[in-house]
Amino acid sequence: MNPCPFSATASSHSWPISPREREIAALRREVRTIEGAGQSWDEPPLTTGCRELDNLFAEKGLRRGSLIEWLSAEPGGGAWSLSLFIACQMARQSPSGGRDGAVAMLAEHNDFYPLAALAWGADPQRLILIHTRHRADRLWALDQCLRCPAVAAVWAAVDAIDPHTFRRLQLAAEEGGVIGLLVRDARVRDEPSWSHAQLLVRPLGGPRQPERVRERTSNGRRLQVELLRSRHGVAGQTVELTLDDVRRSLSQAEVPHQSKTPITNIFHHPRSLARRPIAYR
Amino acid sequence: MRVLALHLPNWPIQRLLAARPELRGRPVALYAESPRRGERVVAMSDVAQRRGVRAGMPLAEADSLNGLEMANPPRSIPVACGSGFNEAIRFLRHDPPADRAALTQLALFCERFSPLVASDDSQGEPCDLLLDVTGLGRLFQSEENLVRLVSETMAQGAANPDGYPVIARLAIADTVGAAWALARFSQALRSNQQITRPAKDAILLPPGREHLRRLLAPLPVAGLRIAEETVTLLHELGVTRIGELLKLPRRSLAARFGEQLPRRIAQLLGEDEECLEAIRPPTEFFAEHDFEHPATRPDAIAAALEDMMTRLAKLLEKKGQGATRLVTRIRCGDAGRDIHVGLFQPTARADHWFELTNMQLARMRLPAAVTSLSVEATLTAELCERQVELFGQSSRDHPRRLAELVDRLSSRLGREAVTRPVFRHDAQPERACDLEPLAGNLAATHSSGKGVRRFFRKTSGGKNNVKGPKKEPDLGRPRALPGWLNPSVRPLRILEDPAPLTVIAIAPHGPPMQFSFHNRHYRVAEYWGPERIETGWWRGRSLRRDYYRVQTDRGARFWIFRRLCDRTWFLQGVFE
Q: A62 Cβ partners below 8 Å, 6+ apart?
């Protein structure tokens, strides 16, 4: 697969870069620096625990101070589990006082089961569960958690976020240097978004298995993750993953492939998707 | 001495309905678990009482009054149908720490009537307040006016933020025992010219202990604040009234019934002095501000508040103390509001206190212009030392910032909104997780932590979790998870009320093959199970279910179960 010449992170390629391409790459870096003023570009990005998933992101991982949306394609699809697993990974890579970083969790639904969150490896000493009755309180609490540098990751299952509030949340994440993982329903994919990346998580099924009874084990969940939008990278890529819920690990299921959908530009408004795609050379 | 007693009948229910408006007018009952007697009802609302629920009734028996709707779980609320009488009775776990905390709040509210307010817990859980009103009649023009004012204040709901009335019976007498007995059993008194009734459910005895023996004679012996066993024994002996008891020689009562009975009689008649132990002892960390003219502008009120907090912070810092509980009192003439702030760590930072207090003040509706303000650090602890960083913020500052975040969230959302999960060994998944509040509770930071909330159950019987001042915010002691608990076993979403499903299974006791939910059809590609979960008979209606984790042909995963008693299927959770 030929690396995209427009990618800012392309480090090696088989043909010489023209001066024009070099200038475009430099301008992209400058725009990224200006837009992500609150993000620390000196620190290495944090890994999700799976190299293939990391490669979906322009920075080959998640940077502190970024908001990542995880859209759930259907109920029971695994978006919550995957994002929660990644939140725990972020906390492990942000130690504080010799222990994992703090993780704040907000769920819009009253039926969120915190014990399952602990089962994913969240440190109970570092877990803050926030329950709210009103949407305004929920968004305020999310804003407060994103602004606190002592929090490693914020995991929130929220659906309705107006653009003004979303922008505020993005700025709060940049200010606090916190990674925000917002899990939402896939119905919001056409709404304006201020997240750094938006991913769609779909479960991958299979043919019906022969009748057998299993013990208390699972053979992992196969999920497809598609990058719908990315602030600094190329959208449209997909990766198939296996989320092993017994060993609590994430690995690639298949080689990622390039989707045939047109690349998006760096703007987030859905109207931009209707623009004429730039052809690859 | 003159004592005003407030009896709060059915206080646990009153507290619950004040905190949860959605339960008002509905049949609600509280139950508690006893190691020997099992789960029994301790209190119930009027609607539940009309349905036949009684205090002391076993929970299983009370639950059977819900009718024969087997499709719904026993403790659910179906769609409201107006009167609440046709609804299923909702059973909630009794929360004594929350009752005590609410009573303490009410006692602090009543400090506007008397500087010394105490609670009485002679009958187990406290539900009475005692106010020392000696010499205060003149301040309110007369004792009748005082009683009328207290009664009206309670009835108008000034003690509750949303105006929910407090039902209280009041009585003033010369002794604590007499006031207590009259507040509870005044309906047994015959009409007497010496007895004044300044308001409904309020009674006032004239000063002078010489009248007590005659006026209190018709009251039942339960008015003596004695043990229930002693009352039962007296009834068996045919002694039901205080007057009959007073005719018996006092010396023989001690030999027969123990020392408590003659001591209570002596206290009732004023022969023995009885002290009131104030709920709030005098404090040295206090600052107040009186406005020259009543203030209505928020910036003026905020400026005065900030100034008081700065003074108080300096006072605390000098003594090496930090506040873990702060009370701001806003007086608006006769009325007022209190703001309580609980802190995760002892702090002496005025800006942090101001931020937390202002958060609640901004959302508060004041009844009138503010005449005075006061701030009091009601609970303090030793300040944690922290090295100041010269350049920027480092991770060493994280514990403090985390504590401030928890304080901010708890201040605005409530203490019970910011929690951490705690695993509990219980077969029933809904009961296997407790939620412990993180912020310092209002009762005490150093004593046993109270108010553990059961997941899906708003009340719990409180666990002891000793917390003291720490250098880093310990969000909780680690509770080891069992080895079998992994994400494949329990879903991230568990429905509080399992949803009925239509399932096709090959065999009556076989695994599911297809199921329908919310007009969507799912084909099962893989399943794991069954996992049988049963609860004991002492829980009331026992559960016997076979749980299956199913994965559909589209890859979605659900947690469903078959109820063994009738083989109906339900959706319990979703592996999101």
A: A45, A46, A47, A48, A68, A86, A90, A179
When CB atoms are compared, the residue of B418, B474, B484 closest to A128 is B418
Q: Where are the domains of chain B?
A: 17-96, 286-411, 414-454, 493-574
Which residue in chain A is spatially nearest to B430 when comparing CA positions? A113
Q: Do A113 and B574 touch (CB under 8 A)?
A: no
Tell me, what DSSP letter sits at residue B397?
Answer: G
Type of residue at B30: L
Fold of A41-205+218-270: Rossmann fold (3.40.50)
State the CB neighbour count (10 A cutoff) for residue B521: 11
Candidate ranges A15-19, B131-135, B395-399, B424-428; pick with highest mean pLDDT = B131-135
| Same fold: B17-96 with B286-411 | no
A84 CB neighbours in chain B (<8 A) are: 492
Q: How far is A49 from chain B (nearest CA, A)?
A: 17
pTM equals: 0.59
Measured between CB atoms, which of A129, A204, A208 is closest to B420? A129
CB B411 within 8 A of CB B404: no
pLDDT for A54-90, tens place per residue? 888 878 888 888 999 999 998 888 999 999 999 988 8
> Is 3.30.1490.100 the CATH classification of the domain at B286-411?
yes
**A-chain residues within 8 Å CB-CB of B527?**
214
ipTM score above 0.90: no
> What are the strands of the beta sheet with B117-120, ordered from one edge?
B117-120, B128-132, B3-7, B169-173, B202-204
pLDDT in tens, B173-203: 999 999 999 998 887 776 666 778 888 888 8
The tens digit of pLDDT for each residue in B515-527 reads 988 788 888 888 8
Q: Is the pLDDT of residue B156 over 60?
A: yes
What are φ and ψ of residue B552, in 5° steps?
Answer: -80, 175
Residue A278 CA to residue B10 CA, distance in Å, equals: 73
Q: What percent of chain A has pLDDT over 70?
A: 71
Cα nearest neighbour of B482 on chain A: A119
Show me where the domains of chain A are located: 41-205+218-270
Q: How many CB pairs under 8 A join A and B?
A: 209
Chain A residue with Cα closest to B493: A112
Indicate yes or no: CB of A119 within 8 angstroms of CB of B486: yes
Helices (H) and strands (E) in chain A, counts: 6, 9
Q: Which CATH number fits domain B17-96: 3.40.50.620, 3.90.960.10, 3.40.1170.60, 3.40.30.10?
A: 3.40.1170.60
SS3 call for B154:
helix
